[in-house]
Amino acid sequence: IAAAIQKVLAEGVIVVAAAGNSGGNLAYPAAQQGVIAVTALAGPITAYQPWYASKGMGTWVTAYGGDKTQDQNKDGKPDGLLSTYLVGGEPS
What we know:
Layout: H1 2-10, E1 16-18, E2 36-41, E3 59-64, E4 86-87, E5 90-91
Parallel strand pairs: 1-2, 2-3
Antiparallel strand pairs: 4-5
């Protein structure tokens, strides 16, 4: 994967990858030099980086991932963003 990333970067392609959900350092391929890493942001009232969001050098973009352990807007529903991956017919 590292060689493929370097090859496309040399061709001027922008490579973006998820930072990871371990809460630690960037996961690969996001940690690969030249890759733009995207990490999670939670909210919706007060923005913060949730516990699971990996981070580190190369993180340039955040996207809303939410936090299923919080309900900042008090609507009775967790603020987390569920995946489109289905388990038993339901978002996981």
